Structure formats: structure tokens, C-alpha cells
């Protein structure tokens, strides 16, 4: 196929509001480096990192969650020098988007041409040399380098994971960030068969994937969500759904599980933090990969000490985790939850829908 010199792209011009997302039809098409492939993008999913990076929410000077005002307009108190997930500065203009599905149309000099034509999904963590868990040795796709809100992207060949699946590109694009995040989050807490797991943010892309991964491990699920999403969550296999707005959330969790829970998995933070930890049994495990409801929480340290709790965070994933998890997609053990699709030029509108959190699953930008 003929690869055009220019392409469509949504370019982030700086930290701030939705107006920082600029749609272009004349952006230079990237050229693959020797160890890279060029992917023609079929679809690219949305995730919280897109919002957090655009608004510089990661800055330690921001103490709120992703509010409607902050998500749409940015945070005046944010420090640009701390604007990325690793609290370092990123450069603009930047094409965001970590959740790419597409096919390879060209390869760099070091890559076998037999890869041309492969359907792939992109592993968003680009590990460098050295210890994989150090931020200085990890680059995130669509953050420290250009991502997938465009027609084409050049990506390291080892991060373009071949996928044998009948799923559409839009369905495949629901997976990359949520699957790496969810599998890492579950791996850190290590739920066992028969254990009770409570999941905050259960209806989102990460949450619905966490549910499926925990069920594959034989755990029983209490989902925290809103009543209007309960039917979808029961259909996924949850044993119980409790209302996140309940004034007695800790007791509701315990009642649903018939006692304290073994594991709490959290992508929300904020006011849910205390109830999640209050519902844990002695030697229970809490793991978190997000704090969209607010990073600042009040916590009695004695609760951690005298219940012998285990707390873990989950961000940078181990090398190879995503490629192994992709086999669950190929064998049909994980199902995509595609909530909605938007055209590329409507990325800002897609982000508004994403931030409204009325959907179940994930929202995707489709290139065709």
C-alpha cells in the first residue's frame, strides 16, 4: 500500500482543558526507526492517563480528583514540570492514546518484512535497560512518546503484539491499558480461589477487566458501582453489587460477602478508600492503580498496623505481562466491553463522555 506523507492526528498542544486537543489533517506521518514498525491504526481506546496527562493532574500541587471542571478545563494549580505519571515534564506537541489496535504496513531496517500485514495490539509500556520497575527505565506510549490518536504510529517492534482474533479493531482497542493495569493490579494482590474481592470503579474499563481476571482465578466479587449499572455487572459474574453512594458502604460490603473481604482492588481512591480498608479482614490485601476520586485520603495508621494489612500500588508492569495476557483474548477467556465509539475528530467529545462515567466498559476512537 502507498503510505501518505501526512495523516490525520489529534495533537495535544499543552497542559490544560479540552481546547488543548487540536485536530489536524496535515500532520507528518512517522517513519519507523530500524527497530520499529509502522502501524496503520484501526482504533485507539481512551483511558484515565489521557485525562490526567492533559490536565497535569499528576502534579503534586493538585489535591482534587478528576472533577468535571478540572477535567474539562484543566487545573490552574498544576505544575507543568510534574505533569506526567512519573512526575516529570513531557514535551509538546504530543499525540496521546495508549490503546492501539491496527495492522503493520511498514518495518524498520532491522525488522523482518514478513511482519507486514500482521494484526497487532500495542503493549503501552516501553521498557528500557536496567530494572524494569524504575520510572527512569519505563516510557509510556502516548505520554513520553507519541501514541495512537492518529492514522499511523511508529512503535518498537517488540511492543506490537500479534493478535489472532476475530474481534474488530474497536473491540481490541478496549484492551491494552486496561489489561496491563488490571492484570498488574490483580497480580499484586494475588486473589485465591474462593476469596472475596471488593472492586471499586467496577464498571469502567479497568474494573470490568479486573472482574474477569479475578473470576478466572476463582474469586468471588463484590462490585462497587451505581444501581443503574448493576445488571451489567451481574451479567459479568459478580456475586453482589453495592451502591457507591451508600452512607454505610463498609457495612454493605461486609453484608454482601457475609463478613470481611480478603482483597480490595481500587482504581477510584478518595472517599471510598476508608470503606474499602475497613471491610478488609485481618491480613487482608489492598492494591490500587488509580485515584480519580481524589488522591488525598484520611487514614488511621493503626488500622494498617494492628490488622496486619498489605498495601501495594500498581503502575509499571513487568516486561512480558501484556503479551502473556493477550493469550486470554485469543482464547476468548476475556471479553471486550465496548461502550461507545467516536470518530477521531471528535476526541474531545469522547473524553467528555469518558469523564461522565455513565458507561460500562471502555470508549474508543475508531479511525474508519
TrEMBL record:
It is an enzyme of class 1 (oxidoreductase). Transmembrane segments: none annotated. Its EC number is 1.3.1.86. The keyword rRNA processing does not apply. Keywords: NADP, Oxidoreductase. It holds the Pfam family ADH_zinc_N. Residues 16-365 form the Enoyl reductase (ER) domain. Gene3D superfamilies: Medium-chain alcohol dehydrogenases, catalytic domain (3.90.180.10), NAD(P)-binding Rossmann-like Domain (3.40.50.720). The keyword Oxidoreductase applies. GO terms for molecular function: crotonyl-CoA reductase activity. InterPro entries: ADH-like_C, ADH-like_N, ER, GroES-like_sf, NAD(P)-bd_dom_sf, Zinc-ADH_QOR/CCCR. This is Crotonyl-CoA reductase. It comes from Roseovarius albus. The gene is ccr_3.
Amino acid at each position: 500500500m502507498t503510505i501518505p506523507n501526512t495523516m490525520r492526528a489529534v495533537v495535544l498542544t499543552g497542559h490544560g482543558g479540552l481546547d488543548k486537543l487540536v485536530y489536524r489533517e496535515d500532520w507528518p506521518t512517522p517513519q519507523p526507526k530500524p527497530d520499529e514498525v509502522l502501524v496503520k491504526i484501526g482504533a485507539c481506546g481512551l483511558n484515565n492517563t489521557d485525562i490526567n496527562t492533559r490536565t497535569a493532574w499528576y502534579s503534586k500541587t493538585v489535591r482534587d480528583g478528576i472533577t468535571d471542571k478540572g477535567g474539562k478545563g484543566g487545573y490552574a494549580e498544576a505544575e507543568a514540570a510534574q505533569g506526567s505519571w512519573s512526575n516529570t515534564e513531557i514535551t509538546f506537541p504530543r499525540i496521546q492514546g495508549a490503546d492501539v489496535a491496527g495492522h503493520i504496513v511498514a518495518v524498520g531496517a532491522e525488522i523482518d518484512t514478513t511482519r507486514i500485514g500482521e494484526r497487532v495490539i500495542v503493549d503501552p509500556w516501553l521498557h528500557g535497560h536496567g530494572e524494569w520497575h524504575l520510572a527512569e527505565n519505563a516510557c509510556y506510549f502516548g505520554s513520553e512518546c507519541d501514541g495512537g490518536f492518529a492514522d499511523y504510529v511508529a512503535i518498537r517492534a517488540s511492543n506490537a503484539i500479534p493478535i489472532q482474533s476475530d474481534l474488530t479493531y474497536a473491540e481490541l482497542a478496549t484492551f491494552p491499558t486496561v489489561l496491563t493495569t488490571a492484570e498488574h493490579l490483580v497480580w499484586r494482590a494475588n486473589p485465591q480461589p474462593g476469596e472475596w474481592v471488593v472492586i471499586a470503579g467496577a464498571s469502567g474499563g479497568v474494573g470490568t477487566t479486573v472482574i474477569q481476571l479475578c473470576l478466572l482465578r476463582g474469586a468471588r466479587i463484590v462490585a462497587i458501582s451505581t444501581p443503574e449499572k448493576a445488571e451489567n455487572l451481574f451479567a459479568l459474574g459478580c456475586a453482589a453489587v453495592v451502591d457507591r453512594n451508600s452512607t454505610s458502604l463498609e457495612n454493605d460490603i461486609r453484608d454482601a460477602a457475609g463478613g470481611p473481604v480478603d482483597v480490595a482492588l481500587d482504581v477510584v481512591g478518595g472517599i471510598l478508600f476508608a470503606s474499602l480498608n475497613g471491610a478488609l479482614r485481618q491480613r487482608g490485601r489492598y492494591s490500587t492503580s488509580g485515584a480519580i476520586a481524589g488522591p488525598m485520603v484520611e487514614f488511621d495508621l493503626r488500622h494498617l498496623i494492628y490488622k496486619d494489612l498489605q498495601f501495594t500500588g500498581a503502575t509499571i508492569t513487568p516486561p512480558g505481562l501484556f503479551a502473556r495476557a493477550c493469550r486470554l483474548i485469543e482464547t476468548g477467556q476475556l471479553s471486550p466491553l465496548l461502550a461507545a465509539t467516536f470518530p477521531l475528530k471528535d476526541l474531545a467529545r469522547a473524553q467528555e463522555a469518558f469523564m461522565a462515567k455513565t458507561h460500562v466498559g471502555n470508549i474508543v476512537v475508531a479511525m474508519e
